[in-house]
Amino acid sequence: MAADPPSDGIESAPFSRRSRQALPGLRPFSEKTAFRPWPGPPSPAAASSSSLKPPGLRSPSRRQPRSPLLRPASSTSDLKAASKRPPPPPPVRPSSRAPSPANVRVSPLVHPIPDSTIGSSLEHEPSSEPVSLPAKSSPALRRPPPPPPPLAQDHPATKHPAVSSLIKQFGNGVTPPPPIPATKPAVPAGRPFQVGATAFHVPSEPVFSRRPRQSFPPEIESSASFPKKNPASNSTPYLTVSPEGHDPFDDVHSDSEVVHPFSQPSPPPPLPSRKLLGNGHTSIHTRESSSESSSPASSASSSRTSSESDVNVIKPPQSSPHPPSSPRPPLAPPPRPPPRHKASLQTANNGHSSPASTSTGSLAAPPLPARKGVTPPAEDQVSRQLPSRHQSMAEQETELSESQAAQPDRKVFGSFLPPPTRTIALGDKLPPARHNQSGSSSESEDEDDSKIKVEQLPDASRASRRPPVVDCLNYSEFDIHVPAYTGFVAVSGHIVAVASHHHLRIYDLSVSGAPIWNLDSKDSFNTKVKDFKITALEFRPTSNYKDRGNFLWLGTKDGHLMEVDVRTGTVTAVRPAIHAHTVTHMFRHGQSMISMDDTGKVLVFTPPEGVELDLRSQQPRVVRIAEKQEFAKLLGGQLWTSTRDPNGGGTVPGTSRGPYVRVYDVFTPGAVGRSVLPTEHLGAVTAGTVLASRPGHVYLGHEGGHISIWSFGDTEGAPPQCVEVVKVAASDVISLEGVNDRLWAGSRKGLISAYDVTSKPWTVTNCWEAHEKLPVLRIVVDTWSMEKLDRLVVYSVGRDERLRFWDGLLGIDWIEQELLKRETEFSTFRDMTVLIVSWNVDSAKPDALTGTPENVNFLTDVLTSVDPPPDVIAFGMQELIDLESRKMAAKTVLLGGKNKAADGTISQKVTTSYKKWFDRLVLAVRCAMPADSPYTVIHTENLVGLFTCVFVKNTEKTRLKHVALTTVKRGMGGRYGNKGGIISRFVVDDTSVCFINCHLAAGQRHVRQRNADVQAIVEDNTLLAEAGPSGEPVAYVNGGDGSMVLDHEIVFINGDMNYRIDQRREAVIAAVKAGDLEHLVIHDQLRKEMKFNRAFRLRTFSEGPLMFAPTYKYDRRSDEYDTSEKARVPAWCDRVLWRSLAPERVQQLHYRRWEPNVSDHRPISAAFKITVKQVNHELRAKVKAETLELWQAVERERLSAALQHYIDQQMI
């Protein structure tokens, strides 16, 4: 007995399409609603009465009984032969014999359409018996049925349109007659039917939005097929679903024109059962099954003709009369059709359809091309362009073929949905092509570097980290408490006023560290105004020198203004409720005072010339500005205000260029404020200032780390213009102040940075921690200090609720630079030799150093390349393990660096590769070096492929101190160590030496990523933090304590830096063969960055001449550059650079490459002679005292210049 075929019919079989999908307008009706099944097939007895009677035809005079099972149609696209018995070949009838219509043998897949000859006597038999889908079926149902024999050319069945379309598509050499137009049955609206436990109802107003055909739930697909008919029964029922008017599944727009099977009230022939496939071509679906994925069986390979549905099938046996079809890629899912016109809806409701209504006019349904095996996401279907409603068949087929050709194959993941696809609309830019990742991390595919934004911040490689403290006050400010956000501070020389809520405390640091006056507003300050809250402070200007900085103005929450004499602690003047709302800001400008409240009311107090400002008698001038300004400051004689952008501070591109900045000339009556915008999307304005070195410019600090520069005063009456935006920090700029010729900025991490804005790009001259890793809320210059203290004092207030004083002239840095110039007067020097070896081994083991003499003798040759033997040997290796191996990388991450031995040797919990290389290096040093000068390992560390091992002579080990080691991860945003660096340092005598072994970002065009990796390594202030300060600042430079790389006097950096040569591969190889290396050095990315990029962190480093050929990339065990399909451009990826505070103290002895060929890189080595110092501290103290005397003269000169600047700005 032949098995039933799978459940996919060909598209041109109308009843197969009918049985595979429910109408779009069906809805659940009732579980007990009756329906009309198809009359079943003939009984076995009737079927055996004539041996020549085709199984697909039955006598028109015999009615068929009903059956409780639903049987869908079948097609040749459902035939599967994988792991199943092929059916026996059918007997072939000679074409010369034309059998009679009663004896012809046709395929059970063919649905004869009733016509005038055979369909007039066929009738439907109604039934109210519900039909249920079985849960499981027998395995025998999965065997395909025998293929049908070919029909004779003159057989009447071959002349039927539906049969002729099948024969035309599947062979038999018969030319089909022209198709006959289909007609629609007259079915009343509201016909219910039921499948299983779910009932459906055809509504009176059909919905013509077609839903995508989807699969049954996985449990039905895997185990449930439509079973064979019950052996006890001799018939199989078929479901009748009658549409109203227009059938949404007719084939008027499909690949072949067929006659609708329901044009006559006649039952179809019996069909063998079909297995359900989860590919969108099944029978009536329930709503719950729409989200289920397809069966794994639906992912088989496909071989099909052009008219078959796009499902995965197996070729039929060669004995089949149908010719084998060529493979064809899966077709794309069709678009959702547009809604029907009202005319079509009205026609559908008439109950009767005319033949004209089923023609290929504008009211016909759009085509239903073949679907893929798995239903795509809904967004993919909606996003595709819909076909035109009035296209011809040829135009539609052309569009479908083009869309199908553009749709790539989507991998089927078992029973899971495939990943979403991306639809590119007409005219959109195509996404970049995907590249397969290579085996080595150094060979990662390139990506357009311009699309990856890597911020280039100002260069801080020479910044001093020493805090510029002042010592002009008798008592420290450390005990002064300033409440964060609610406290206000005003400083005038040694007088400090702190207000918070109802309290006002006045300090005189020349007398005591405790407040000399402690006033409370609840005691009314001896005035009639009681219980007020202070919200603003500022000292009033005076023409009398003795009174300068002694009269303090207070602004309150209720709008009062008061004046207090800080010498006596008494209130000298009161203007109650002069502001109707909270006073938020107070400014001093020349002899005038300006107060401002939160409603935009500004009061300008300007006394007549030669008269002191009196709060009680002076009548202010009122100026109106915008209300609720978050930032306000008097800059260049104009009031600059700003509020956040209503669209979110300008952070959303396309909404605004940034926060609104408004500038008001409050000293000119009748002047109108100007609104300006920055040139870029910036955050809210947090602070503003002016600089003496750049007059006519205003600097505004923004959230996000930007500083915008505005020019004003160039043209009379012209508004300020934003001329530049500079990114200075990764976090927000909280506070900003121009101090002398430096721009001071406070960050959220408690750091204050001083920028030299005269260079392009800016450079950081000082950067120190001011407020213990908490935000620096305010930075203000005390202009009174230049007259009262002979200092330029700057005070800052932080979130730590502390007040700190700083030297605005940065005198301590000037003294340090002078001491360095005279270092030879108090220090002694000696020489040491250092050997550095760098090699990317590409996961090669030391056992691979065999074969050629270059491999065998490599370690011995490199160790003996320095004469006399070096005092320090530093091995830096990269890719010691296979970075593509997740197991090895995970083991290194979990075990590497743990439980190091006390003597600095390697941990016992690392992978075998690190242990083998460590043992091999120790053995090589022991064998190559003289026996009377042994070496000791002081540093070993590994980081996911990186490996550092540092040897020191035993005679030098006793001079070492402050030995420390740390790592920096740069892969995956700093979370993974496949890229990064290992940093080791020690102090020998009074000189600090640092070694860096690094592996930077790969890729021909990833220069910015490599620069960012370098910046993170050399500027991260968390490096070596566990070592703590050395206690001897003479060993470090720039006021550092050894916690940063650039704190050290001598720094070496080596490794696979991955900087490439910007030339074609053929040109590079030709230059290497010709020995023209100087031409290649010009195009080396590292050299270009060091020469032209002023923000490059290795700009202050040095490198020896490149006299050897590029070391990357070779074929293993050969001397040929990369011959793979990727054909990498040769490059000097492996480098050794150095930096010294005094350049003459580092001298390079050699810089060369070696020739072992077990890796795709060649190793390099560099030898140096360094000079270390030993300081005589007594002589140093004497020289420092002489330097301090010189500074006093320089300080007076700088104070005079700063005083004149603040007078010009009318701040004094």
Automatic annotation (TrEMBL):
List where Polar residues composition bias occurs: 344-362, 383-406
Superkingdom is: Eukaryota
- SMART domains (alphabetical): IPPc
Gene3D superfamilies, per the entry: Endonuclease/exonuclease/phosphatase (3.60.10.10), YVTN repeat-like/Quinoprotein amine dehydrogenase (2.130.10.10)
Which InterPro entries does the annotation name? Endo/exonu/phosph_ase_sf, IP5, IPPc, WD40/YVTN_repeat-like_dom_sf, WD40_repeat_dom_sf
Residue ranges annotated as compositionally biased, kind Basic and acidic residues, are 244-258
UniProt-annotated stretches for the region Disordered:
1-466
Any GO molecular function: phosphatidylinositol-4,5-bisphosphate 5-phosphatase activity
Which Pfam family name is an example for this entry?
Answer: Exo_endo_phos2
| BP GO annotations | phosphatidylinositol dephosphorylation
What are the Low complexity biased-composition ranges? 45-59, 66-77, 94-105, 291-309
> Bias category Pro residues: which stretches?
142-151, 318-337
Where does the Inositol polyphosphate-related phosphatase domain start and stop, copy by copy? Answer: 830-1176
PANTHER family according to UniProt = INOSITOL 5-PHOSPHATASE, INOSITOL POLYPHOSPHATE 5-PHOSPHATASE C9G1.10C-RELATED
Q: What is the protein's given name?
A: Inositol polyphosphate-related phosphatase domain-containing protein
The organism named in the record is: Pycnoporus cinnabarinus (Cinnabar-red polypore)
